[in-house]
Each structure stands twice: as structure tokens, then as C-alpha cells.
TrEMBL record:
PANTHER family: NA(+)/H(+) ANTIPORTER SUBUNIT E1, NA(+)_H(+) ANTIPORTER SUBUNIT E1. One of its GO terms (molecular function) is monoatomic cation transmembrane transporter activity. Keywords: Cell membrane, Membrane, Transmembrane, Transmembrane helix. GO terms for cellular component: plasma membrane. InterPro entries: Cation_antiport_E. It is a multi-pass membrane protein. This is Multisubunit sodium/proton antiporter, MrpE subunit. Belongs to the CPA3 antiporters (TC 2.A.63) subunit E family. The chain crosses the membrane at residues 25-45, 57-77. It is found in: Cell membrane.
Length: 158
């Protein structure tokens, strides 16, 4: 049985024991199960990959939400104030992400972030074309995406 499946079984067991079959109850059960599996991981042998992967996915989730909040505030501030800082533009960004899953996740996360929109990906999946609301410095935006969201996605899907 895989460690992830065992963690899910522990989460459902926790929800059954507490009588709370809610999303919150299952999430708490997942965290408690994760901690229990972390403590007894030497009994399973090579399971470090699972714990690293869960950490990387949580990191992606938290950092994406941080980017979402910061960009939402930036766009709202620009819309609500009389002085508009928006300098929209279209930018081509070289991608280091390999595989369709990585490219798909990067493009969707970029499109979900206010102020940016994924427009196209080249056939070879090496270049992403985006529309940015604040495109004053295209090189800075490309570096921000490459060292931010794209790197977090590559780490999570490794």
C-alpha cells in the first residue's frame, strides 16, 4: 500500500472516530495521519519522496495564494486610485517547464493571478506568451515568473 493511500485511510479513520465527515475533519485527519506516518517512516523504508512531495505541493499552494493576494491588491489599487500605473503589454517568456502537465499548471496559475493572462504556448512548449497589466519591465516579469511560479510548479511535479 502506498504511503499516500495509507494517509488517506488514516484521514477517513480520523473523521469516522471523531464523527466529523466534513472537509475540515478530513483535513485534520490528513494532517494527523501525515504526522503519524512521519514519525514511523523508518518502518516503511524509502518514503522520503512522499513527505518531500507533500511539502512541495503545500509550498506551491501557499505561495500561489500569496501571489494571488498581492496581485489582487495591486490591481485593485490601480483601479481605485485616480493615477493609473498600468502599462499593459504582451510578453514572451521562455519556459524551463517540461511536459504538458507542468506547462498546463503554470499557464493556469498565471491566468488565475489578477493582472496576468496566458495567451498562447508554442508548439514545442518552450515559450509562453502572456498579457501583463503592469508590463513596464518585461525582463523582470519573465524572471519573476521563471523564479517564482514556474520553479514552484517544477518542484511540485518532480
Amino acid at each position: 500500500m502506498s504511503v499516500f493511500l495509507l494517509n488517506l485511510v488514516l484521514a477517513v479513520t480520523w473523521a469516522a472516530l471523531t464523527g466529523q465527515f466534513t472537509l475540515g475533519g478530513l483535513a485534520i485527519g490528513f494532517v494527523v495521519g501525515f504526522a503519524a506516518l512521519w514519525v514511523i517512516q523508518p518502518l516503511f523504508g524509502q518514503t522520503g519522496n512522499y513527505f518531500t512531495r507533500v511539502y512541495r505541493w503545500l509550498k506551491l499552494l501557499v505561495l500561489f495564494h500569496y501571489e494571488l493576494i498581492v496581485s489582487s491588491l495591486s490591481v485593485a489599487w490601480d483601479v481605485l486610485t485616480p493615477r493609473h500605473r498600468a502599462r499593459p503589454g504582451i510578453i514572451c517568456i521562455p519556459l524551463k517547464a517540461k511536459g504538458e502537465a507542468e506547462v498546463l499548471l503554470v499557464t493556469n496559475l498565471i491566468s488565475l493571478t489578477p493582472g496576468t493572462l496566458s495567451l498562447d504556448v508554442t508548439e514545442d512548449c518552450n515559450t509562453l506568451v502572456i498579457h501583463a497589466m503592469f508590463a513596464d519591465d518585461p525582463a523582470e516579469i519573465a524572471a519573476s515568473i521563471e523564479n517564482g511560479m514556474e520553479r514552484w510548479v517544477r518542484e511540485a511535479l518532480e
